[in-house]
Design goal:
309 residues, mainly alpha
Length: 309
């Protein structure tokens, strides 16, 4: 639970003491989707501490893990995911155990450690039962395979994921899968095809009313437009995503936007602006301990130094 002084700093549309856990939990879910991570943590913390219903308690812990992860608070995110796993194991709730495994794997993926995420996801698939949850686990496994350069395996995992999400009628899941399928196309050199997939992902994210998904799709669309030399379109999409990430305090995603914006400025011949973007992004990535994005930006700065000699 958050300290009382922290609670007073986050406005809620109700007094938690006068409403049920279901109302507080619903607000936590809305806040998470809207990028209001402080509010999500506040509401989820209340339910995790006081709920007698173990299903609700597990959901609150899942929200806590995801919100901490978005804020790059790795230790807290892993702790919440493992608390959910312990609660689910004790109560013999197989789907909740799989949710907890997925939350833990998501921390590793966000931190740039796909090799750590893979066995956790495989473990989660052993207990998952519902189509939506199977879709989530297969999707993250697809992200792992993409990160490891195993594109055929990634396509198989993402196609499997999409099938489960379609069966569940899950708009959020469909949008996520479209983003990741677009990334596979981009990584395999099909930038034109990727733009079409990312455009569908942006529309699907809006239909799901999830600003984080919309911003993620827009950031990746910026990468695709950059590959095609459409620099103005790339800048518009990257800047739009960056605005959301700043307002929602998603520092790691903002660092990724800075990397893309630096690439765009270098392509325009604005080397000094590009270096400023990269250096700001590098400082952020280093402070967060995000090794994946850190190494990508370091490589760009080193290449620029080598070229200028």
């Amino acid at each position: 639970m958050l300290a009382s002084t922290q609670r007073k700093s986050v406005a809620l549309p109700f007094d938690p003491a006068t409403v049920g856990d279901d109302v507080v939990l619903s607000q936590a879910q809305v806040a998470l989707r809207s990028g209001l991570f402080d509010q999500a943590l506040l509401c989820a913390g209340i339910v995790a501490d006081r709920a007698k219903d173990l299903e609700w308690r597990c959901e609150a812990l899942r929200i806590q893990s995801n919100a901490h992860r978005m804020l790059c608070q790795w230790t807290e995110a892993l702790t919440a995911a493992r608390r959910e796993a312990e609660t689910a194991t004790t109560a013999k709730m197989d789907n909740r155990l799989a949710e907890a495994r997925n939350a833990e794997a998501a921390v590793y993926l966000t931190r740039g450690e796909p090799e750590l995420a893979r066995p956790v996801l495989v473990d989660g698939l052993k207990t998952a039962k519902t189509p939506r949850l199977l879709g989530v686990l297969w999707q993250n496994l697809g992200i792992v395979e993409t990160s490891l350069g195993r594109f055929a395996e990634a396509e198989h995992a993402l196609d499997t994921s999409r099938g489960f999400f379609d069966a569940a009628g899950d708009q959020w899941g469909v949008a996520c899968t479209l983003i990741n399928q677009g990334c596979v196309r981009l990584d395999t050199g099909d930038a034109e095809g990727a733009t079409l997939v990312f455009a569908k992902a942006i529309a699907a994210g809006r239909a799901a009313n999830d600003l984080d998904l919309v911003s993620s799709a827009m950031m990746n669309q910026a990468r695709a437009y950059f590959r095609l030399g459409r620099l103005d379109d790339a800048e518009f999409h990257a800047s739009s995503a960056a605005g959301f990430y700043v307002s929602s305090k998603m520092a790691l995603r903002y660092a990724e936007c800075l990397m893309v914006l630096g690439d765009i400025e270098l392509a325009r011949g604005e080397r000094d602006i590009a270096l400023r973007c990269w250096k700001r992004g590098l400082e952020t990535a280093e402070a967060l301990g995000a090794t994946g994005i850190r190494d990508e930006i370091r490589e760009r700065i080193q290449q620029d130094l080598d070229h200028s000699r």
